[in-house]
UniProtKB/TrEMBL annotation, chains A, B, C:
<comment type="similarity">
    <text>Belongs to the phosphosulfolactate synthase family.</text>
</comment>
<dbReference type="InterPro" id="IPR003830">
    <property type="entry name" value="ComA_synth"/>
</dbReference>
<dbReference type="Pfam" id="PF02679">
    <property type="entry name" value="ComA"/>
</dbReference>
<protein>
    <submittedName>
        <fullName>Phosphosulfolactate synthase</fullName>
        <ecNumber>4.4.1.19</ecNumber>
    </submittedName>
</protein>
<keyword id="KW-0456">Lyase</keyword>
<dbReference type="GO" id="GO:0043817">
    <property type="term" value="F:phosphosulfolactate synthase activity"/>
</dbReference>
<dbReference type="InterPro" id="IPR036112">
    <property type="entry name" value="ComA_synth_sf"/>
</dbReference>
<dbReference type="InterPro" id="IPR013785">
    <property type="entry name" value="Aldolase_TIM"/>
</dbReference>
């Protein structure tokens, strides 16, 4: 390992802050193993995106692989939503328990559910599972007001959610983002102020979005929907080792570089 | 495997409908094996994209890997087109036969060929191979009329094509799509009506495009140019297990959810 | 291997022209091995992008894997820039030497450095390493004039750079590209004329950009920031085996195709 630079401090696992919440969208089991061997230290929790865990083969093997490395793994909120739509809540709880899954996501990205009822599910599930509850709709047309986002997030935490996820979708084009992927800064600030940024996982699938959050909240911000491929690139953003955040973490100091690099003295340059 | 939800019926392999036609753009052989181990059941046929099969190493090994799993594999239409351009038709047929490849694509995405001549190749090749013939140009400026698309597709089927592919390119920005990736619905409807949707493979590389076809034609639509990475995500679309198609396959039923989830009764919610 | 087509000549490794400079952005070690097994012949040099090599595990293993296959590997310019910012030049040189890395990149994509000073680093490093120096800023707002690009590139070559890299970033949206990814042709022509195209590695992460350079400079153009996934697709562009460059390398010849494909004679077509 290289070790000649100063980089921002990062907490160690298991983390409550600085969480990288990764998205597994149905990749192969060997690929997961291979990826984790270079980035395991930076993966805090993994979501088997939407219903991919329901259809892909070798599910038990994949879950075991993550769990052997102490990385919790759970199913995307869409599975919960279809479950509710079909009235299969008990069956879901039973099968998840049998699989040994210890986390669950409660969301209303697509289905309509009274917020009170949603909080009921958070409460009920938090007796048995660690609950992540997601605020935000996948449909950009049905947006919540600032107050609604904040209030709902707060009540879901009170109902027992470990973290509140702020919706950004796998594509990063809805929820806390506009159609063009731009961050809705006012919404972020409002919610972070009410709950504390460490209670929130911000879904941020795109590099520019990740850079924005790292610049705003520092290296220990919780970021979600990060593809397994992007865990290492995100870690470089957190440490100021990618162009986007170099200036944030390694500001121009006014240090006399010539002094620090005396070996250059006396070398004739070309112009 | 999880098994607590109702999802739309899907046919079993070998399929004539509900085909997922996957694109291998030159990935490694181990990656293919690893991917197939989680999604083999949903991959019906694989195209080695354009000329990638001509330049990548370990070609025989890759073909054997697919064929051992009863997944037909063939070379992208660009290879056929360059062959015609260079007058090497006989040599192509000979080398493909030696490789044990049993499918071939006839296209005129780039080269100019009288349609009658194209149909001649379909006819000739269909004696020895299963032929996929592609309608559409890669160049967006040379678009065909509705009648031309439909008529040509029809004649290529009559000449012996197993399926007609409607061009969308790997990028999903031409053929049946506009520059912005939007679906040309009128063209699709017209051709599907004339040939029957089950005779057509619609190239649909992007998630939104796949969702559109699944909503329009149901879970058993034939979709092509699906990256190996996207086979599992597509399968979730076909089953209503991704946000985009939840509403299509699991509509709001008016069922009294409270009844179905009695365990929530009596739980005090937070507001 | 298939071998029935004429394709443009390509030089063999080790290459001085026709270089594919690949980007490893933190992928797993098995994935690297697997990819190289299908495209090793076409990978000339690999950059561990920006600071990914600093944070990912199994660094030594990955370096050994590339070097065993005679593929030089080095660290992205951002690492050099943070080093200079922190005044750790000597430490960097020492650690790189210990790792057995033989190439280094000098860039000023983010940091401010007098050009004379930059050339001093090129000169100093070229005593011990093979130096790639990069011209261009990551920040699109601080663009250089045509003369500045050309002049700087020239002086960096004189200072000892093996090749000059023209900045395009991993995203292909700055440096020699506009915000929309379009190529700045005037800039390219000017610099290529002054230095010779073979002294330059053009960063070209997107397919359309790669096709542009291959059409303009031929199959032996040096292209950089090519993802490992895209090495095979790029090779098809260089040989006219992808739609984008078929016309370039296999022009309509006026050859009588009917003669070359006599087996079609007598076949009744469908219209």
């Amino acid at each position: 390992m290289l070790d000649f630079l100063d980089t921002p401090d990062r907490s160690a696992k298991p983390r409550e802050e600085g969480i990288t919440h990764a998205l597994d969208d149905g990749v192969g089991v060997d690929e997961v193993r291979d990826r984790l061997e270079v980035c395991e230290e930076f993966v805090d929790i993994v979501k088997l995106g939407w219903g991919t865990g329901y259809v892909a083969d070798r599910l038990e093997e994949k879950i075991a692989l993550y769990q052997r490395r102490d990385i919790p793994v759970y199913f995307g909120g869409t599975l919960f939503e279809v479950t509710i739509r079909q009235g299969r809540f008990d069956a879901m709880v039973e099968e998840l328990s049998e699989l040994g899954v210890e986390h669950v996501e409660v969301s209303t990205g697509v289905i309509d559910l009274e917020h009170e009822e949603k909080c009921g599910y958070v409460d009920r599930l938090s007796e048995e599972f660690t609950v992540l509850s997601e605020v935000g709709r996948k449909d950009a047309d049905e947006e919540l007001t600032l107050e609604e986002w904040g209030g709902r997030a707060e009540r879901e935490r009170e109902a027992g959610a470990w973290k509140v996820i702020m919706e950004g979708r796998a594509g990063g084009d809805t929820g806390v983002y506009g159609d063009d992927g731009d961050v809705k800064a006012g919404l972020i600030e409002h919610t972070a102020e009410r709950l504390g940024a460490d209670s929130i996982v911000f879904e941020a699938p795109q590099t520019e979005q990740q850079a924005w959050f790292v610049e705003r909240f520092g290296p220990e911000v919780n970021l979600g929907n990060v593809r397994l491929d992007d865990v290492i690139p995100l870690e470089t953003l957190r440490r100021g080792l990618r162009g986007d955040t170099v200036e944030t973490f390694h500001p121009e100091t006014g240090v006399d570089r010539t002094e620090a690099t005396t070996e250059l003295a006396g070398i004739e340059t070309d112009d």
